[in-house]
Structures are given as structure tokens and as C-alpha cells.
Design a protein that fits this description.
single chain, 458 residues, mainly alpha, two-stranded antiparallel ribbon, globular
């Protein structure tokens, strides 16, 4: 089921951007056994060769069909938005329609469209120099102005901040201390809190309903600020880089915010303010011309839809890299090395994909399944090849899995709700992720990022 394997130095190294590679005492294990036995015989070079070749082949095959498929998914997402906006005045049980439609619109606009475009999945196909529009490229989508953000991908997070936190730190430091999305470390307080486990599960449910605006929006902005300040030569301690930057900190802890050259006014005006005002209060304004009750119902429905979208995205995102069968690592590794590809497999999990072995590579039913999963059911392939299109991940999955089975690298694919339970178990401290032992590391792949070289401890 699940297996992981890149090199690692041990316990919890640094975390996001300004994190360093820390070595903790070597464990006394020498040979992996039992569940970890696969790590003893992996041929990193051959595994890297086959995985890399598949990625290159898929990238070279991308073209107009990928743009057509992207636009098809945009139409599906926009259809949800149009239905939601046309019915957002409804109240009573009728409000279920706009709430679900608006929630799905918001979720898919992020997880499918913004996600893959910002990774560069369509850079080559939509390159203006090759006759493309340039809109569906890393530098043309959602960044640079409030207008582009509203037009392309409007959410609590600032797209530029998310690009730093997710595209750079999370993807290239997956499962290690420098990964800002390492769930086990981020939920350490809840894990160690002396409370009945049942109450902890309730806390996880509460977090799911508000995580984007409470944690993700401020923390991604912090990472953007850290990145900018590092470029200016500022050095941060591991503790500073890892400390959660939640909404209460961003709004009310002026001392902590000042460390990252931000504050309540800056944060609200750049990050959350535009979304809060335009999405929840300006969008339904025309309804005031009809009936004040319609406007009030619309505002309520928009907030309910946001809560549902938080829950939907939590279920399909937080569960991608968490569970007692997922590995965590200590040191960074060279991008696109054998260890890098191994981590993409052993620290990620796929959900149900409609194009399983023996089924059509893609089609409307496959697209519907993947649409509802926010296209996050291909996390293994996505972490190996973050620059590919959504259509390419459908093509990649069966071939990628076959390579992993050939090399005995654990490829985990399970129902998303099964993974939700595994994730919640880690969050409350009932289970823990697996540590990839120092002795199993392929030392040839070890690597240090610039901020790790200049990192200082407190």
C-alpha cells in the first residue's frame, strides 16, 4: 500500500523556506525490516531513470489537447459558480443549491485550476511566443494585481504567497522539517495536549471548517515575507521560520508580525481584505435593488459556502501527505534525483482515480471523479512531475504505478475518507508518521538549499 524512500538525516529538520538541515542523533537501526524492508534494495539510479523518462515523455506529448481539457474543467467550475450566483438569494432548504454550487466553484478554482496553472502545467502550451494567450501561465494567472486575482483565482490566500509556500517549499522539501505543510509538526500542540481523544477529533473538525482563513492565508503570507527578506540577506532561526502564523497572530501580535515586516493593515489590505469585502459583500450587492432579504440570504449563503469549501478542501488536501504509513525525512535532496522521486511516492497518497488499470485513460466519467477530488487524487504523480497538466496526470498514473511496483516502492492509493481517518489520527496524537532512518539514506542525493546554509539556531 504505502511506501516512502528518499534520503534523510533524522528527526525534525528545519521547516519551510528559511529552514536548515538539522541532524539528529543517528538511530541505531541499520537495516530496514518489515514494512520498511523495501528501502534496503532500491536501485535509486534505475528508479530515477524510469520515472524521469516517463515524465519527459508525457511533457513532450502535451499540446492543444491539454489546453482544451483545461478549458473544459474551467467551464465545469464556472458552471458551478454561475448556478451559485444565480440562486444565492434563496433561503430555507433551498439554500443547499447555492451553498454546494458556490463551495464547489471556490474549491475547484483553487485545487484544479489555480493549482496546476501556477505550477506551470500549461506554460508551454499557452506560451504567447507560440501563439498562446499567456493567461494560463505561471506569470499570467492570478498574480500582479487585484483584478487578475479576482478574474482568475479569488480566495483567502494571496496567489503570490501560495506560490512560494506551496510550489517551492512544500514541493521541494516534502516530508522534511522544511516542509510548511508537515501536518504532524504543525499539529504538535494538539497532539501533546492532555485532553480526551474524542475532544481532539472535535477540534480537528473545527479546524477543517476554517483552516484556509485561520491558518493558511496568514502562514503563506509569512512565507512570502520570509522569502523576500532572505533575498535581502536577513537570516531567521529555525524556530522563527516554523512558528505557526495564524490569523490572531497576524492581527493582534504586532511584535511577531513586525519580524516579518507586516502588520494588520498590510495583511488585511493585501491578503484577506479584498476577498472578504468583494466576495461576501460586494458580489451580492445587486440583490439590494430587488429585496434586502435576498441580499441578507446571499451573504449568509456565501459564508456557509465558504465553510463547506473549507471542509471540502481540507478533506482532499490535508490528507495528501499524512498517515502512519507516510514517511518523514530529515535532510533535503537534489530535485529530480532518485531520492526526490522516491519521496514523491512514499510521502504522498493517491485517492480513487477513475482511470485505473484496464480502464480508459480519460473521459467524462474519469473527469467527474477527478473534478470532485479537486484533481488531488494524483498526488504521487503530481509531486514527481509538478509541471504537468491535469490530463497528463490521468495518463501518467497507471504507468507510474507499474514502475513503482516493479521496484517494490510502496504506492499508496486509498479512499479519501479512509485517508481522512488516518490524518485525523496523526493530528490528535493517536498515530505518528514513519521516520526514514539515517542509515537508509542515499547520501549521493543529499542537498542543501541556500537558506539552510545560512540558517541559525536559537
Amino acid at each position: 500500500m504505502s511506501k516512502r524512500m528518499p534520503p534523510s538525516i533524522s528527526a525534525r529538520a528545519g521547516r519551510i523556506a528559511a529552514v536548515a538541515t538539522l541532524s539528529s542523533p543517528k538511530s541505531q537501526m541499520s537495516e530496514p525490516v518489515g514494512y520498511d524492508a523495501w528501502a534496503a534494495s532500491l536501485d535509486y539510479g534505475l528508479f530515477r531513470e524510469e520515472i524521469h523518462e516517463l515524465g519527459q515523455r508525457l511533457a513532450n506529448q502535451q499540446g492543444e489537447a491539454d489546453i482544451r481539457h483545461l478549458k473544459k474543467m474551467i467551464r465545469w467550475s464556472n458552471a458551478c459558480g454561475l448556478v451559485g450566483m444565480a440562486t444565492m438569494w434563496m433561503s430555507g432548504l433551498g439554500r443547499l443549491l447555492p451553498v454546494v454550487a458556490l463551495s464547489t466553484w471556490t474549491c475547484t478554482r483553487w485545487t484544479m485550476i489555480g493549482h496546476h496553472i501556477c505550477h506551470g502545467g500549461y506554460n508551454r502550451q499557452d506560451n504567447p511566443r507560440s501563439g498562446g494567450s499567456g493567461r494560463y501561465t505561471t506569470h499570467g494567472f492570478a498574480v500582479g494585481s487585484v483584478f487578475r486575482r479576482c478574474r482568475d483565482w479569488f480566495d483567502w490566500m494571496l496567489p503570490e504567497a501560495w506560490n512560494v509556500e506551496h510550489n517551492n517549499l512544500h514541493h521541494y522539501r516534502l516530508g522534511e522539517g522544511g516542509d510548511p505543510d508537515l501536518v504532524e509538526r504543525n499539529l504538535e500542540l494538539l497532539r501533546t495536549l492532555r485532553l480526551p481523544r474524542a475532544l481532539k477529533y472535535v477540534a480537528v473538525a473545527g479546524l477543517a471548517a476554517m483552516w484556509k482563513w485561520y491558518y493558511y492565508a496568514p502562514n503563506t503570507y509569512k512565507q512570502l515575507k520570509l522569502s523576500q527578506m532572505r533575498k535581502a540577506g536577513v537570516v531567521f532561526s529555525e524556530e522563527e521560520a516554523h512558528a505557526p502564523f495564524t490569523l490572531p497572530v497576524a492581527l493582534f501580535d504586532s511584535k511577531e508580525s513586525a519580524k516579518f515586516r507586516t502588520g494588520p493593515v498590510d495583511f488585511m489590505s493585501r491578503v484577506m481584505g479584498p476577498y472578504l469585502l468583494l466576495r461576501f459583500f460586494a458580489l451580492p450587492l445587486p440583490l439590494l435593488l430587488v429585496n434586502r432579504a435576498f441580499y441578507t440570504a446571499a451573504v449568509v449563503n456565501l459564508f456557509l459556502a465558504d465553510t463547506l469549501s473549507n471542509i471540502h478542501s481540507f478533506i482532499i488536501i490535508a490528507t495528501n501527505h499524512c498517515g502512519d504509513d507516510m514517511y518523514k525525512f530529515g535532510a533535503s535532496v537534489t530535485p529530480r534525483s532518485g531520492s526526490f522521486y522516491m519521496r514523491a511516492v512514499t510521502s504522498s497518497v493517491n485517492f480513487r482515480t477513475a482511470n485505473g488499470v484496464g480502464k480508459p485513460v480519460h473521459g467524462n466519467m474519469a473527469d467527474l471523479n477527478d473534478f470532485l477530488h479537486g484533481w488531488l487524487n494524483y498526488q504521487i504523480e503530481h509531486h514527481a512531475y509538478p509541471q504537468l497538466s491535469m490530463l497528463s496526470y490521468q495518463k501518467a498514473a497507471p504507468q507510474f504505478r507499474a514502475i513503482c511496483e516493479k521496484h517494490a516502492v510502496p504506492y499508496v492509493q486509498q479512499n479519501v475518507f479512509h485517508r481522512l481517518k488516518k490524518t485525523a489520527d496523526v493530528m490528535v496524537g493517536h498515530k505518528s508518521m514513519r521516520q526514514f532512518d539515517d542509515a537508509w539514506v542515499n547520501s549521493k542525493d543529499l542537498f542543501q538549499w541556500d537558506d539552510q546554509k545560512t540558517h541559525v539556531s536559537q
